[in-house]
Amino acid sequence: MKITAYGVNQTETTFLQQLAQERGFELTLVKEWASAENLDLAAGSAAINSLQTGPYDEPLFAKMAALHIPLLALRNVGTDNIDFAAAKKYGIQISNVPVYSPETITEFVLMSALRLLRRSKEMDLAISAGELNPAKKMVGRQLSTQVVGVVGTGHIGYTVATLMHQIGAEVIAYDAYPRKDAPDWLHYQSSLETLLQRADVLTLHVPGLKANDHLLNAERLAMLPDDAIVINTGRGNLIDTAALINALNTGKLAGAAIDTFEFESTIEDQIQSGQAPSESHYLQLQDMPNVIMTPHIAYHSLGAVENMVKIAIDNIFSFTQDGSLINPVEG
Question: Which comes out higher in pLDDT, residue 54 or 93?
Fold first, then answer.
């Protein structure tokens, strides 16, 4: 059996090669994202294995059908970049990895919150410029004394909430479908707006569905307490970036950590082609001393990558054996 993996980095390559040897399948590795233009490399494959923020569009699915490749097995959870209508039209099945390491993203959220509250980027910039006296005068805040608002309490959001509670913060949450097994310390709010009015630290963990476009817009950003911080490791479309920049420029917000960026596809195209990002919103945020920009890497730990690769391959083997998927995805 042949499997072709697209968008592969060096860490993934190691785990994929190990699995190919252990489980006896032929493996083709492609660094570039999957597209109709390069899909001939996958000819003869039982499935496409992929991870990318670029689109899975109709030409891609048409090409898969022409090559008789019936399965797209994602190495990640997000599906907002998939043309499901096209996949259905061409009879392509899709699987994902819904849970691979909530702890990895949780640790990243914690790191981001602490960096913003203790103003570590500002201090680093001052120290690098030789301005040690200003750095010594920068006063931070304790995370344990903040009200942390968690939007979305699925696997990742709930793990974040748990760690924040263990640190000593008051944790409030909003989810359209609250957990029935929620502990007493997790205080669900009746609406997103109610949560925003109290959240000193806001962290987003909902999917990038069309309905969630600009979930955090200018009106809702204004509801946050003064000097609140915003962390987004969910999806880029959740925040109106122009409104976020305005809230930072006016001093309404004390800082932001953006791992998933609204115009991510634009800068990813540039990064993939070896260029420096030039998107105007990105450059504005990157230049701010109270903003931490990272390239969609909150998930990227060795344990998480190993799980993502293994579960994706498990889906392919299940499909080839009896036509079933462990983690099927339907649009």
Answer: 93
